[in-house]
Amino acid sequence: MKSNHQLLVVLITILCTITACKKKEATEIVSEEIEEITQEVLVDENGDPILLGIQKRVTLEKDPYARWFTVGYKEHTLDTVTINTIKEDLGRTKITVYMGTWCEDSQREVPALYKILDLASYKPAYLQLITVSEDKDTPQGLEKGRNITNVPTIIIEKKGQELGRIVEYPIESLEKDLAKILSGEEYKHAYAE
Fold this sequence. Notes:
Order of helices and strands: HEHHHEHEEEH
Number of strands: 5
Shape: globular
Number of helices: 6
């Protein structure tokens, strides 16, 4: 009987140890999840989350960003004559857009660019949209080596070579600036020296 009692004590001790270890593992997992959740989230002056990294257009078309995206898209008056002249050249280029969801210039120019590209039947797969912080950076370092000083920065490339960029705002209009860049005509963005 004494050995049964000792065996029972040993079994209870083992069971408690196993349970305690599992509980500890579960506690550590919960702690890690809480730590991830409580990381600082950047917000703009309206309290909206600031998007960072590679984005899809559909994200900008949803709240809270839809408030400015929809308005900017609708309010841009298209220069259809210029768009028709650049449509073919535009279709063979890659466009990379660095923007800030917190930035009024980005909120105005990026929806207008999408409207232009829609009319030109531009393939969305050739456009890369990268959202940056107010410091013009991303957690992944997607801005490194790209000389992003102001946003939006719209970079037009062909065969891996940068043809030109529109920085913060167009000189004439998005359509006319794109036409100059695509034609190889001399073009200097607003911050070019």
